[in-house]
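Practice problem: predict the structure.
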Amino acid sequence: MSAAQATRVNRFPLIEWGLCRCRCVELVHRAGYPVPRKSACVYCPYGSRRDWRALAEQLPETFERIVELEQRKPPTTRGKKLSIMLYDSRKQRGTPLPVYVASPGRPRPPAPCKVCGAAERAIKATGCDYLHEAGAA
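Answer:
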């Protein structure tokens, strides 16, 4: 198969079986097990403002280390100081992480689960832990 013929197909078996996160949480509860959080990488360039705020609140020391790492990044060969957040490739600059986290952003209305229609969906949490240990349901 040539590279031109190769295709990638993403599959989501749980959703194909009608099992969204909401229903999985329900099944795990009924089985008597602790519910793992929906995890997120600690230093993910794809993190949302909400993810970064959660990190700053839940793990402030880790957040400060990440801010320090970003501040220490050397400039590019063109002398630009880049930041991952809101990176603009044309201008070759971004927004420093603390400024990004502190800015209000655009409010989003809560989106119901696309599979079961539940109004309250699970959100990402920093690292991997269990919801019952964090005091969440």
